[in-house]
Amino acid sequence: MHGIKGAEFDNLIALSLLDGMVPHRADPKPLDSAKKLLYVICSRARKNLFLISDTARGKAATRELARTNYLYETVPER
């Protein structure tokens, strides 16, 4: 996705959404950066969005991602 301004994708997978990585630990405005990045990630998915925080690495999910309330669409049974 990097370098494709405004591109949208049917399926979008964002990995390693971990504290200290998103945003980077050296970012001077971490909360603002995390909000902007998550907005961009979420606004590019047309159908399916997967947000992954692999806490097995010993880090917690990025705080902004953990604070967000998500609305899920239910898939009708066939």
Structure description:
This protein has helices spanning 30-43, 63-67, and strands spanning 9-14, 45-51. The chain is globular and about 40 Å long. The mean pLDDT is 79. The protein is of the alpha+beta class. It has one domain: Double Stranded RNA Binding Domain (2-Layer Sandwich).
Estimate the helix proportion, in percent. 10-25%
**Domain module count:** 1
* Average residue-wise pLDDT: 79
Q: Beta fraction of the residues?
A: 15-25%
| Helical run tally | 2
Radius of gyration: 14 Å
Alpha-carbon distance between the two ends? 33 Å
Q: Give a count of the beta strands, DSSP E runs of length 2 or more.
A: 2
Q: Structural class of the helices, strands and pairings?
A: alpha+beta
Q: What's the CATH class, please?
A: Alpha Beta
Q: What are the segments in which pLDDT stays under 50 over at least 5 consecutive residues?
A: none
Oligomer state of the chains in this structure: single chain
- Please name the CATH architecture: 2-Layer Sandwich
Give the overall shape: globular
Question: Characteristics of this structure?
Answer:
24% helix, single chain, 78 residues, alpha+beta, Double Stranded RNA Binding Domain, globular, two-stranded parallel ribbon
In short:
This protein has 78 residues and is an alpha+beta fold. The protein has one domain (9-67): Double Stranded RNA Binding Domain, CATH 3.30.160.800.
Secondary-structure map:
Blueprint: E1 9-14, H1 30-43, E2 45-51, H2 63-67
Parallel strand pairs: 1-2
